[in-house]
Amino acid sequence: MIYIAGIAGTFMAGIAGLAKESGIPVSGCDAQIYPPMSTLLEELDIPVKEGYLAEHIAPNIEQYVIGNALSRSNELVEAILDQRLPYTSGPQWLAEHILRGRQTYAVAGTHGKTSTASMLAWVLESTGLKPGFLIGGKPGNFERSARLGQTSNQTNVQSAPFVVEADEYDTAFFDKRSKFIHYHPTVAVLNNLEFDHADIFEDLTAIQTQFHHLVRTVPRNGKLVVNGDDQNLADTLKQGAWTPIEHFSVVDPKADWFAQNALADGSAFSIFHQQQHYCDVQWRCFGEHNMSNALAAAAAAHFAGATGEQISAALASFKLPAKRLQAHPSKHGFLLYEDFAHHPTAIKKTLHALKQMHPGKRLVAVLEPRSNTMRTAVHAEALPASLKQADQVHYLKPNDLQWQLEDHLQQAQA
């Protein structure tokens, strides 16, 4: 049996589900347990305890999988260390027990990881490959955020691909490398790269170093799918690359993969591969950022053998994950959307997409600065410009906000 400390997080709940599906007994604990992860764990019949207590230690537990939310001085962590009990991280467990021997498709980037990983998994599913996946959100086309996919123990029979949302956040209190370093992907999608996670990264260069560590792990017979519109990624790759690279772009028609709008709001567009028409897409998504995500998913799926016709059909039925431009019903005559955008760039792109979707409509933005980086002053100067497209801005102020949000939001409405 494995015991997951921090089991109610999206990533660790996915690990729990994969363990259960693999036939490995699993239980765990967390400080705060609430839907949707609590519901998922209950559906999977995985026992969960509340709190991180030394009394949770039991003789039938073979290994403790410790989430990155736990640190030294945590009661359970200290008990595990004091008793010399075997422990590992979630990413390391995933690499050793699920990813080993499989073609892994890792989707990395500051923005769009959840959406792009969901797109890629759905395209591969639609082609009949029955992929496994672990996505850091609730995908719209699947009932759960993680599944094992089709596996095989037969000689010379390959398991289906595995799609993993590859987070650059650190692994655990005892392993400060980015999570994605553990995955050793066949294909790495590099969506974009900006400064974020100021609680663990000193500056942009520190994040670029981790991304380049990921690049170093991709084999020569694999693929790097890279956003050609992102200068920070271009600078990172100048440090060296040993794997074939395909660039995607919504700007440069000479890129390996290029998207051209058929409708201004991005709900219809054409994909070109090596400057030749590849397929047309009509779907229920909007915005240039989602077009870019679709290009990344198409390029990765093409490596897996998907055709343009299959990619077009899959994207036509694709549903965005929860909290990604998610529409909510309203009885008051206005349209209400929820979006995860946690960075000024993402906020700007989301508001731009909404303006394109509803031209001439009044746009009211409500900001909740919840991320560690947003609660500090790191993005204070960039935030006003990202909100300029909104006609009115409101905010929900957290108690631990470390800067004067009001002053900066006044600039956005000036």
How do the helices and strands line up, and which of them pair or pack?
Blueprint: E1 2-5, H1 10-21, E2 26-30, H2 37-43, E3 48-50, E4 63-66, H3 75-82, E5 87-89, H4 90-99, E6 104-108, H5 113-126, E7 132-134, E8 146-147, E9 162-165, E10 170-172, E11 175-178, E12 187-190, H6 204-216, E13 223-227, H7 231-237, E14 245-249, E15 257-261, E16 268-273, E17 276-282, H8 288-303, H9 308-316, E18 326-328, E19 336-338, H10 344-357, E20 364-367, H11 372-375, H12 383-386, E21 392-395, H13 405-412
Parallel strand pairs: 1-2, 1-4, 2-3, 4-5, 6-9, 6-12, 7-9, 12-13, 13-14, 14-15, 20-21
Antiparallel strand pairs: 7-8, 10-11, 15-16, 16-17, 18-19
Helix pairs in contact: 1-4, 5-8, 5-9, 6-7
Q: Can you characterise this structure?
A:
With 414 residues, this protein is an alpha/beta fold. Helix content is 30%, strand content 21%. The protein has 13 helices and 21 strands. It has helices at 10-21, 37-43, 75-82, 90-99, 113-126, 204-216, 231-237, 288-303, 308-316, 344-357, 372-375, 383-386, 405-412; strands at 2-5, 26-30, 48-50, 63-66, 87-89, 104-108, 132-134, 146-147, 162-165, 170-172, 175-178, 187-190, 223-227, 245-249, 257-261, 268-273, 276-282, 326-328, 336-338, 364-367, 392-395. The strands form 5 sheets. It has a 10-stranded mixed sheet, sandwiched between helices. Helix 1 runs parallel beside helix 4 (90-99), helix 5 (113-126) crosses helix 8 (288-303) and helix 5 crosses helix 9. The radius of gyration is 21 Å and the shape is globular. The mean pLDDT is 89.
